[in-house]
Design goal:
Number of helices: 5
Distance between the termini: 9 Å
Strand content: under 5%
Radius of gyration: 13 Å
């Protein structure tokens, strides 16, 4: 997998396609959190043509990491949130998922 393509997918999906409504409400509502995770993952599906296993890993991890920062404030800094997402992407690449 092309790491630059996956990084582009990450930043496009996590920031470019996250609406103001999603950003403001994903920490308050599980459904909206799912919409954000699904939109994020859709970018990978469309642009990087990821596998089903990678799709499940990316949507699941994104759905779980976001509430740690937005809902429960366990993750206090955006850079920690971003490192976690990038580590998941690195694992997908490393394990060739």
């Amino acid at each position: 997998m092309n790491i630059l393509l996956l990084l582009a997918c990450h930043f496009i999906g996590d920031f470019g396609f996250q609406s103001k409504w999603m950003a403001e409400n994903k920490g308050k509502n599980w459904e909206i959190n799912f919409y954000h995770a699904a939109t994020y993952t859709a970018v990978f599906i469309i642009l990087a043509k990821i596998s089903l296993a990678a799709t499940i890993i990316l949507i699941g991890s994104h759905f779980l990491i976001e509430p740690l920062s937005c809902r429960w404030k366990v993750i206090k800094y955006i850079w920690v949130d971003q490192i976690l997402h990038l580590l998941i992407i690195a694992a997908v690449i490393f394990f060739k998922i």
